[in-house]
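One chain shown below:
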Amino acid sequence: MGNTVTIAEKKHFLRWFLANYQLQSREAEMLMRYMMTRESVLRRVHFVENFRQLPRVIVVSTVCVQVAPFRYYRRNKPVSTDVEQAFLDLYQHPDEDVYVGLYFKDRATSAPYASVLEEITSNELEPAVKEMITLQAEWIIDQAVRGFQRAKLMEEVDRALDEGNRRQFLDASRRLIEFDSLTS
């Protein structure tokens, strides 16, 4: 985790949240209250905004937004709308982290919400996702380097044309053609 939020801070936030917002699902509210009263569970709860690729996610929304009332995501399993399934999973796997995404009015400007948000570090992503990100980063860097090298060769060709130097032009053009044939 990038930043650590204490159990007391999470409990205080949930108390504030449930006092100020009405959830679309009564069962989801009961689940949130259960999490709030169990320190062992709350220790593993992380409030996040971006929960793609995370292993276990609960998404809850309030009546003031047009988002599905409740969703439970578990790696390699279908998305569920069953709060009881999420509760049982929390109960049966208390040692696993659970990531909570909340949708409510003014969440983008809510100081209490911002105070409990946690950033997900790359070591919490699945290895396959990390590998894909690494490959994409390498490809982007490679493309940038190739673009820079090609631009330098083009400048040499242009300079030779501007100077009217036939020998430099032919040499620079040959190197540009070779470069293009190697990188395509």
Observations:
- Helices lie at 7-20, 26-37, 39-42, 83-92, 111-116, 127-163, 166-183.
- Residues 131-183 form one domain.
- The chain has two domains: 7-120, 131-183.
